[in-house]
Amino acid sequence: MMEHVFQQGAQDAPVLLLLHGTGGNERDLLPLAEMIDPNASVLSVRGNISENGMPRFFKRLREGVFDEEDLQFRTKELADFLDEAAQEHQFDRSNVIAVGYSNGANIAGSLLFHYADILKGAILLHPMVPIRNINLPDMTGLPVFIGAGTNDPICSPEETKELNSILIEQGANVTLHWESSGHQLTKPEIDQARDWYDNQF
Ligand code: MLT
User: Fold this and answer.
1) Can you give the pLDDT at residue 1?
2) Measured between alpha carbons, how far is 121 from 109 in angstroms, rounded to an integer?
3) Transmembrane region positions (predicted)?
């Protein structure tokens, strides 16, 4: 099990899987879910890693350099948790859409990189390429929204474009949205993500 919050939404509405950034927790993105889809169920998870007291979803060796062994272990742990949580909270496992910011976007990306059909869609806010040189699953038709900042010092525009290309190569249906911002979340990108979500689901 992972520390989490579950909020039941309307019948048949999607389940938003909320994944916070480094130093965040399972309450951080609840307002974001409310902005994206107030009818959705919410499964908001706390990362199992503590980096000097800051929760994360996987270990890193240093800023921007991931511990790939731990990333893969934690990705499987989260995938297994989704199955368990669907049982416990009686939600439709095939109706889960990830909303991740920063480190949370990276573990969401890693779910997509490791498992076919793991998510119905994903909103990746300020993501990086989670891992390179692995065989990727088919992602045909998978709806993905990427929110990025042209001045993001952590997720460089080059890396954002690389992630975009990789996802498209696997068949995902990617919408890439830029703001002239840094690593922080901005209201305009959340509005764009909501409009995209309204059109997709
Ligand atoms: C990561 O470690 O996942 C990225 O550098 C983003 C972050 O700082 O959380």
Assistant:
1) 83
2) 11
3) none
